[in-house]
Structures are given as structure tokens and as C-alpha cells.
Amino acid sequence: MAYEQKIAIPEGVKIEKQDGGKIEVSADGSSVSRVFVHPHVKYNISGSTLVVSTESKRNNDCAVVGTWASHLNNMIKGVTSGFEYKLKIVYTHFPMNVSVNGDVVDIKNYLGGKGIMKANILGDTKVVVKKEDVIVSGTDKEDVGQTAANIERACKVKGKDRRVFQDGVYLVTKE
To answer: Is the dihedral of CA 32, 35, 38, 40 positive or negative?
Structure first.
């Protein structure tokens, strides 16, 4: 092997190879799956270790090995402990109303406007609104992060000085 990275599989986590390069990581009733396909990079499961390797010495192929290892570590972390992003609702004069309707977050009364701002919730992500806090949680890091970004982006100030008009929903912590 020219380059390889080993990933320890914790107890209680099950990793399955499926057709088409798809890997499914599951534990405690939650699962995350992703397709990993590259002509020069391979992965093998041996005991409680997952090995991602390449026989090529090209930097691009070695970079793909590191990327896949990071994705697999995030998948394992997602099914064991999950990901949680906390956002804060900030307003100065007009109180915003944030609510969850199915797979959409509705933001009403933004800067006193009559329109409803909408942000999509991706995948199995859960969104909870508690007074001034919005908590986005789930097992897939990319879905959780993109949902938080959708909520932030829905409240973007347009056509006004952002130093003065600071109303919006802003990311505070990632866990």
C-alpha cells in the first residue's frame, strides 16, 4: 500500500458494504449511508478496523483517502453521539416568530415584514425552537450543517447596512 488510514470501529457500531460502493453505518436504531466510488481508492473491513487505502502515490489519490476517512469518522460519530448546532434568534425592534412546519422552518415578522421566510430541513434532521434558540440535530453532519445554513440564509439582510440591521438567526455553537 502506498498510503492508508485506519479507522477504529467502536462497539455497537455496524458497518455494511452494499452494492455500488455504498457504505451504511448503523448503531442504536439510527443509520447513515453514503456512496464511496473512486478507481484508485479501496476500503476493507477487518474485525473492528476499517482500512481506507490506495496503491497510487499521486497526491490527489492520497487526499481522497483522507477525505473518505474523515467522512467515515463523521458517520460513526453521527450514529453514536449525533451532531447538534445551536442558533440564536436576534432582533432589535420587531420580534421574529420562528416555527417548524413539517420539513420547512417558517420565519415570520422578519424586520417587520409581512412575508414568510422559509428554510428547508434536509434528511432526518430535527429542528426544535425554544424561545430565542433554534436547535438543529441529527445523525448526518452534512444535512445538519446545511439545514442550519438554510435557516441562517433565509434571514439574510438585503439592501440595508448589515452593521445597523443585525436582525437574523445566527449560528452560535456546533457540537
So the answer is: positive
Tens of pLDDT, residue by residue over 90-138, are 998 899 999 999 999 999 998 888 889 999 999 999 999 999 999 999 9
- CATH code, domain with 133: 3.90.930.12
**Which amino acid does the sequence have at 55?**
E
Q: Rounding to the nearest 10 degrees, give the CA dihedral for residues 60, 65, 68, 69.
A: -140
- Check whether residue 14 and residue 50 sit in a common domain: yes
Where are the alpha helices (H) located in the chain, listed in sequence order?
59-80, 141-154
Spatial CA neighbour of 151 closest among 96, 87, 84: 87
Query: Residue 31 is part of which domain span?
Result: 3-80
Same domain as 23, residue 45: yes
Distance of CA 7 to the CA centre of its chain: 20
Number of domains in the chain: 2
Q: What is the pLDDT of residues 18-32, one digit of tens each?
A: 888 899 999 988 999
The answer to whether 135 and 105 are in contact (CB under 8 A) is no
